[in-house]
Write a structure and sequence with these properties.
Blueprint lengths: L6 E9 L19 H23 L4 H16 L13 E8 L2 E3 L7 H4 L4 E2 L3 E2 L3 E3 L2 E8 L5 H17 L13 E8 L2 E4 L3 H8 L20 E8 L2 H16 L6 E2 L2 E2 L5 H11 L19 E2 L5 E6 L9 E7 L5 E7 L10 E6 L5 E4 L6 H8 L5 E4 L3
Antiparallel strand pairs: 1-7, 1-8, 2-7, 3-6, 4-5, 8-9, 10-16, 10-19, 11-12, 13-14, 14-17, 15-16, 17-18
Protein name: CRISPR-associated protein, Cmr1 family
Pfam family, one: RAMPs
InterPro entries: CRISPR-assoc_prot_TM1795, RAMP_III_fam
């Protein structure tokens, strides 16, 4: 009797930037790597890549496409809903973490990107992080898994290693995983420079309309190589500085010791009015970078802006620091526009001591993020969003 052998894909990733990845106690561990976070990130990029093809197969019917996407994802990666409809994964992930260490010092130049929860101005870093090392991965498929499924996982593994990361603040460039090579039954792919990244991007489907109900590749997706050089943390620091100086109103007219650009004076004034209990008609422009979007004014008032019922809206901007085998690095920034919030979602603007102001299905302007990306004068466009 002849048995089909399982198909395997192997890949190697470098941990390029500090990774805040831990267990239930939030403590990093350089001896045990938790595949649940990796599989979650892999599923995210699988959905982002496959939304367009599945929407097309469903003749543009968004509801049917969401159902089909969920069904295919569950069949491929497994489900854990209830006994009647749970399913096992067609692919098992096995990882080995090597040459990694746990640290809890430094990163002072990255405090803007770290944000609250990971950094405190007085106490410094609040959690340890994984530093350096490499992750060796094997994806083993059940015998009989269709080649289209294997190829789709291969694409997602590659996208994770070119655009993504793991752990807290992954969208801000922390925990960046840089794929070095990938072996599959179709051969070996090595990622030795920017042309290899551009070649992979050329294989992706960007035909979906811009109103995607999830983070996905669409006609509006933009991918830039914003900066290049070494070391990786220097690039991430430059990204953080530009993001802070672009967005910040400043204190006493200064940001990082430089004259504040004050690109969003109207945001400042409207937010101050809302913090004082006055109604405003629209979200601050900078809310497009994600919610919650909070303000604390030197004059005393504060303002919290969240989707109602304490929801969140993750940033549509992804920062990834990629390191090539020769040690050179590139900062990849990806903008994935889509429906900012589900229809009929209210956003709550709440000043301390005042009744909340509700905005129903507020609109955002993705041009705000395009203008930020345009500030990197040496950028190389990998894909211009339409």
């Amino acid at each position: 009797m002849k048995f089909n052998l399982p198909v395997e894909i192997t890949a190697e990733y470098l941990i390029v930037t500090p990774m805040f990845l831990g267990g239930a106690d939030q403590q990093a561990d350089d001896q045990v790597f938790r595949n649940a976070s990796l599989k979650g990130a892999l599923r995210f990029w699988w959905r982002a890549i496959n939304w367009g093809p599945i929407l097309s197969a469903e003749s543009g019917n968004t509801k049917a496409a969401l159902q089909a996407l969920n069904k295919r994802e569950g069949e491929l990666f497994g489900t854990a809903t209830d006994a009647s409809c749970s399913g096992q994964s067609k692919v098992q992930l096995h990882t080995t973490l090597q040459d990694c260490s746990v640290q809890q010092e430094g990163l002072n130049k990255l405090n803007y990107l770290l944000g609250q929860g990971l950094y405190h101005f007085r106490d410094g870093l609040l959690r340890p992080f994984l530093s350096g090392g490499r992750l060796e991965l094997t994806a083993r498929f059940k015998p009989g898994t269709p080649q289209t499924d294997i190829d789709s996982v291969s694409q997602a593994l590659t996208a994770l290693g070119l655009f993504g990361g793991l752990g807290s603040r992954a969208r801000k460039g922390f925990g960046s995983l840089a794929i070095q090579w990938l072996n599959s039954p179709g051969g070996r792919q090595a990622f030795t420079g920017l042309p290899a990244i551009a070649a992979f991007i050329a294989t992706l489907d960007f035909t979906a309309p811009t109103d995607a109900p999830l983070s996905a590749l669409t006609t509006a997706s933009r991918l830039d190589a914003s900066l290049s050089g070494a070391p990786a943390l220097n690039l991430l620091s430059k990204i953080g500085t530009e993001l802070q100086e672009y967005r910040s109103y400043g204190k006493n007219g200064k940001v990082n010791g430089k004259p504040a650009r004050r690109n969003f004076i109207e945001d400042h004034d409207n937010a101050l009015a809302a913090a004082q209990g006055k109604p405003i008609a629209q979200l601050p422009k900078r809310a497009v970078f994600g919610l919650p979007h909070n303000y604390r004014f030197s004059s005393g008032p504060s303002l919290q802006i969240n989707p109602q019922n304490n929801g969140r809206r993750a940033s549509p901007l992804f920062i990834h620091i990629h390191q090539f085998p020769d040690g050179q690095c590139v900062a990849i920034q990806i903008l994935l526009p889509g429906n900012f919030l589900p229809a009929n979602t209210a956003v709550e603007l709440k000043g301390k001591g005042h009744r909340p102001n509700l905005l129903r299905t507020p609109q955002v302007d993705y041009q705000v993020i395009h203008e930020y990306l345009d500030n990197f004068k040496q950028k190389k466009g990998l894909r211009d969003g339409q």
